[in-house]
Design goal:
The protein has six helices and eight strands; from the N terminus they run αααβαββαβββββα. With about 230 residues, the protein is an alpha+beta fold. It has one domain (about 5-225): Protein Transport Mog1p, Chain A. Strands 1-2-3-8-7-6-5-4 form an eight-stranded antiparallel sheet, with helices on both faces. Strand 7 (about 180-190) and strand 8 form a beta hairpin.
C-alpha cells in the first residue's frame, strides 16, 4: 500500500502532464511577437475554472462510500518527461484554464479516479492530442521526485472524437514500492478531458473504462453543447 506522501508524488506526476497543464521557463514556440499576442488573446477567451466546474464528475457519479480527495497543492513545477500541454502548443503562458477533481474510496490504496478538463484555443484540439502522443512516445523512462517512472501504451476503447491511453508505472528505487496509474486523454472538439485511475487491489483499467466515456459525455454536454 502506498504511503500518503509517496502517493502525493505520484498524483502530482500524473496531474502536471494533464490536458491543460502549465508551463515553465522554456520556449518551444517558433512564433514571433504578433503570434504570441494572438495566442494570448485566444487563451483569454477560454472558459475560466469556475465556468468549467459544471463539466466535472461529482460525488453523485461515484459509488457510495467514496469521497472527494482534497487538493493538497503539491503539484510543483516539474512535469513528467517535461511534457506540458501549453508548451506542446507553443503557447507563451504558464497554464491554460482548467478544472479538476479526484475521488477515492481509499486515497492510499484506491480505487480512485481523477479528472481534469479544459479547452485549448479554437481549432487546436486535434493538434493537442497529436502533439501529446508524439511527446509521450519519446517518454519511455523518467525520474520524478525520486521515483523511477516508465510509460507504456494502454489498450483502451476509443473515447470522444479521439483519445490516447497510457499506463504510468512508478517505482521507488530504494523500497521497490510500485504503483501503476492508468490514464486517458480524450478530446471533444477543442475540449480536452483527462482521467486517471489507480486501484492497488482491483483493476485500474476497468475502473478507468467505467468513467471515461460518461465523463467526456458530461463535460461535452455541459460545456460544449454536447
Amino acid at each position: 500500500m502506498a504511503t500518503r506522501r509517496w502517493l502525493a508524488v505520484v498524483v502530482a506526476a500524473v496531474v502536471t502532464v494533464a490536458a491543460c497543464g502549465g508551463g515553465d521557463d522554456s520556449d518551444d514556440s517558433d512564433s514571433g511577437g504578433s503570434d504570441e499576442a494572438t495566442a494570448s488573446a485566444d487563451i483569454a477567451d477560454l472558459p475560466p475554472e469556475d465556468a468549467l466546474q459544471p463539466g466535472l464528475l461529482t460525488i453523485d457519479d461515484v459509488p457510495a462510500g467514496w469521497a472527494e480527495v482534497p487538493d493538497n497543492g503539491d503539484q510543483g513545477d516539474d512535469s513528467l518527461c517535461g511534457i506540458r500541454m501549453s508548451h506542446l502548443l507553443g503557447l507563451d503562458e504558464d497554464e491554460l484554464p482548467r478544472a479538476e477533481i479526484q475521488f477515492a474510496e481509499d486515497v492510499d490504496a484506491g480505487p480512485s479516479i481523477g479528472e481534469q478538463i479544459g479547452f485549448v484555443p479554437e481549432g487546436r484540439g486535434d493538434d493537442a492530442l497529436r502533439l501529446l502522443q508524439d511527446a509521450v512516445a519519446d517518454c519511455e523512462d523518467d525520474e520524478f521526485n525520486g521515483l523511477d517512472v516508465s510509460v507504456s501504451d494502454l489498450s483502451f476503447p476509443s473515447v470522444g472524437d479521439e483519445s490516447a491511453a497510457y499506463r504510468v508505472h512508478f517505482e521507488d528505487p530504494d523500497s521497490r514500492q510500485a504503483l501503476d496509474v492508468d490514464a486517458v486523454w480524450a478530446r471533444h472538439g477543442d475540449l480536452l478531458v483527462y482521467l486517471y485511475a489507480y486501484d492497488t487491489v482491483g483493476n485500474s483499467t476497468e475502473l478507468l473504462q467505467s468513467y471515461a466515456q460518461p465523463a467526456v459525455d458530461k463535460a461535452a454536454a455541459a460545456l460544449d453543447g454536447g
